[in-house]
Amino acid sequence: MRILVIEDEVKLTGLVRRALEREHYAVDVAHDGVAGQAWAEANPYDAIILDVMLPGKDGLAVCRALRDQRLRLPILLLTARDAVGDRVRGLDEGADDYLTKPFAMTELLARLRALFRREAPEKGRLFQVADLTLDVATQEVRRAGRAIPLASKEYAILEYFMRHPNHVLTRDMIAEHVWNYDFSPMSNVVDVYLRTLRRKLDDEFSPKLFHTIRGAGYQLRTPKSPS
Known about the structure:
Elements: E1 2-6, H1 10-22, E2 26-30, H2 33-42, E3 47-51, H3 59-68, E4 75-79, H4 84-92, E5 97-100, H5 105-119, E6 126-129, E7 132-135, E8 140-143, E9 146-147, H6 152-163, E10 168-169, H7 171-178, H8 189-201, E11 210-213, E12 217-220
Parallel strand pairs: 1-2, 1-3, 3-4, 4-5
Antiparallel strand pairs: 6-7, 7-8, 8-9, 10-12, 11-12
Helix pairs in contact: 2-3, 6-8
């Protein structure tokens, strides 16, 4: 999943970015409101962490502008203001949650997980395709009941596929959701990771779940039931 952090405090931005990347999120960063809004409008983010006090354009104005454009992704506001009126105003402008500085990084991560659960309550924490399961809460992956250890990027790619079963995902779509803005479109790293996932999750199992769609991309396909 890909997250945009709009925060002008460089040290805090670095801490947040590292914490998110440890949890397998791809992270882009903007340090002012104008740039942050432009990034949010131009890229398919899964969530935005948005500081209220920003140079160029304050976070509440950015939040309102994004909601006016019907962008419905979760927005988590960060602020040093802790008055009830400030929190209410932020929520009224379209934010989904509000975190007061200073905050514990574990709470930030927990609030993000809660926002994602709220966005897709019907899916819950466990994704399943055939006998392949992924538990978002524990980040445990199993095939046919066997635990399969995955590296950070492998897990992030698999989660993206598990959230979109039977969809054909292009290399660009995978890169946009798993890597940050610095990713080179000329790289073959997506193909390399897909080969590794197939080796770990498909080679020793049946039926095969990952499929290459020639000229289009890749698909995690639910097997057809025998007639």
